[in-house]
């Protein structure tokens, strides 16, 4: 197996006023919080969005592990729907001292390039900033951060920067070059 160099960039906002919202796309696009923890639905979103960009870290999670993660106080999944069909999601995970990570964000391939991503990222970031309002006991958000890497979509970094995220760290690491898993075996051409 060969290795590839993967660059990971970490970006942040340190005040709600850092957010530069994107315009809403045309059409019937809605963003709804998935309030009932559903390992099946969350795994579907994860595999469908990340299947062509090498998201593999959660593919081996058991149903119980998914449920444990989703039931943590403050973990939220916001789903974009285009005419009733799931188009993508953003997952928020609170950390210590008012830090919220946008742990996952992305669109199912068929919905990319339609201006849904900027709108979903804007909405998800705003929900990270007001997370404590929905979760008594969580500290008020002081910082929102995320990471992206050279395996992500070609427009990811530009979208984050247009939404007001600023780069604070860059790392390059060797990783095994694995085939894209797709949402199911053989979903994407090799």
What's the gist of this structure?
By secondary structure, this protein is an alpha+beta fold. It has helices at residues 39-50, 63-70, 116-129, 131-134, 156-162, and strands at 3-13, 29-33, 76-82, 85-94, 99-107, 143-149, 166-176. 24% of the residues lie in helices and 32% in strands.
Q: Which labels suit this protein?
A:
alpha+beta; 7-stranded mixed sheet; 5 helices; Acyl_CoA_acyltransferase; 24% helix; 190 residues
- Our measurement of the CA-to-CA distance between the termini, rounded to an integer number of angstroms, reads 16 Å
Question: What is the C-alpha radius of gyration, as a whole number of Å?
Answer: 16 Å
Low-confidence segments, ≥5 residues, pLDDT <50? none
* Order of helix and strand elements from N to C terminus: EEHHEEEHHEHE
Describe what this molecule looks like in 3D:
This protein is an alpha+beta fold and 190 residues long. It contains five helices and seven strands. The longest helix is centred in the middle third of the chain and has 14 residues, at 116-129. The chain is globular and about 45 Å long. The relative contact order is 0.27.
Please render the helix and strand layout as text.
Blueprint lengths: L2 E11 L15 E5 L5 H12 L12 H8 L5 E7 L2 E10 L4 E9 L8 H14 L1 H4 L8 E7 L6 H7 L3 E11 L14
Parallel strand pairs: 5-6
Antiparallel strand pairs: 1-6, 1-7, 2-3, 3-4, 4-5
């Amino acid at each position: 197996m060969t290795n590839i160099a993967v660059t990971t960039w970490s970006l942040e906002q340190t005040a709600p006023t850092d957010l530069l919202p994107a315009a809403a796309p045309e059409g019937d696009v809605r963003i709804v919080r998935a309030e009932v923890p559903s390992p099946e639905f969350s795994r579907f979103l994860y595999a469908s969005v990340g299947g062509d960009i090498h998201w593999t870290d959660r593919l081996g999670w058991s149903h119980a592990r998914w449920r444990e993660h989703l039931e943590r106080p403050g973990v939220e999944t916001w789903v974009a729907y285009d005419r009733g069909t799931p188009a993508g999601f953003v997952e928020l995970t609170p950390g210590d001292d008012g830090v919220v990570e946008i742990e996952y964000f992305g669109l199912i391939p068929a919905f990319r390039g339609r201006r849904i991503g900027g709108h979903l990222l804007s909405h998800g970031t705003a929900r990270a900033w007001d997370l404590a309002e929905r979760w008594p006991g969580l500290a008020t958000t002081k910082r929102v951060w995320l990471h992206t890497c050279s395996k992500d979509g070609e427009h990811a970094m530009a979208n984050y920067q247009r939404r007001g995220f600023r780069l604070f760290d860059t790392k390059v690491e060797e990783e095994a070059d694995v085939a894209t898993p797709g949402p199911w075996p053989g979903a994407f051409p090799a």
